[in-house]
Amino acid sequence: MGFKNRDIISIRDFSKAEILYILDAAAKMDRRHDNSLLKGKVMASLFFEPSTRTRLSFESAMTKLGGSVIGFSEPGTTSLRKGESLWDTIKMVEKYADVIVMRHPAEGAARIAAEATELPVINGGDGANQHPTQTLLDLYTIKKAKGKIDGLNIGFLGDLKYGRTVHSLAIALSHFNATMYFISPEALKMPDSYLDELGEKKVKFYEESDLLKVADKLDILYSTRIQKERFPDQMEYKKYAGIYKLDKSILPHVKPTLKIMHPLPRVDELSPELDDTPHALYFEQAGNGIPVRQALLSLVLGRMK
Amino acid sequence: MKPRTLKISAIEEGTVIDHIATTNTFKVAELLNLRDSETIVTVGVNFESKRLGKKGVIKIGGRFLTNQEVDKIALIAPEANINIIKGYDVKKKFSVAIPDVIQDIVKCANPNCITNREHARTKFHVLSKSPLKFRCHYCERVVGKESIELV
Description:
A: alpha/beta, Rossmann fold, 5-stranded parallel beta sheet, 4-stranded parallel beta sheet, 9 strands, B: Alpha-Beta Plaits, SH3 type barrels, 2 domains, 5-stranded antiparallel beta sheet
């Protein structure tokens, strides 16, 4: 499968076979410890918006394989402050690097960047739109924990309206024969455009506001943070924050094999008292960012077939 | 005595846009910037129409539409027909059709889309023609007819 020079912009750009190919490549990365695979390659890490996890995980993935990293972690330190366009920034960076990883607050920014350069561009998040490497690491985590993705019952909990990770993962899961449960208050429910898309793909899904009604069916429960910054009205935020809090009181109602995932960072919605239970999968999930991003970098740089 | 009526006069050369829903007629006139036309333009509304009940007609002397203008009309008035007139004859007649890809003629309705921030070209993939639904190539937001804002 040809991934050399391919852009990783949106999960919608990938077929099921391609997704599985990337997950297999990530599994190979998990097993091998070749620290010179990306020697001589330079990754430009362009974070027009701050991010700790994604940036550190990409930079770690690159350096662990012998590559090097240039870039910035906030736009305040760059010529963007002087009004340089994204297009021009990319045209400049293209001369300095072999691959571009970027996060940007505007939706569609990574797609524009990919049009500006011949270099492969990996989207590390474009506004509320896509975060495909998070989606791939979520899929990898599910597959690694459960041995499969097909046929699983997967619940999404919390802010499903603004949760970018939820939207992308639901679209990716539509390739697999998974049943999805969207558990949220009415005001934070999954947007209709996504439900329509799943409906057109004949995906089986249910909407529910009470977790307890469906808890015993789930193989995976994907919890999300209710993001303060998404609410212009802080009264609204307070009303919903913590409403879907997960703690040990849920355990009598779930399968013993249930795994709980969360894209992190968490605030109140996921109690630390679950961390030591066999249900907690979220730290492993964060760790899986490394092999998945190593695989993607190696594939698009043509160092892995 | 028969009252004098003013009919829309035939044009020798140009374009007749027919079967426009009356409510869309002035929008079409506006998108073609007919206000600034220096040739003869006739805009009529509330003509009887079997298909639409009431219809509008626009005749533009001495002007032929570009493909992009025809695409714009298709988005605003998907019911319209276009007649190309040469030597007082209809040389070609066709219905407008919504293209599969809408390029450079519509602004993205999402204010946080990069195309609204960087003055980039716009592109949308049509998901459904009736009801009209299309996805922005960049921000991936799906919008419908109610959000169309022409460039």
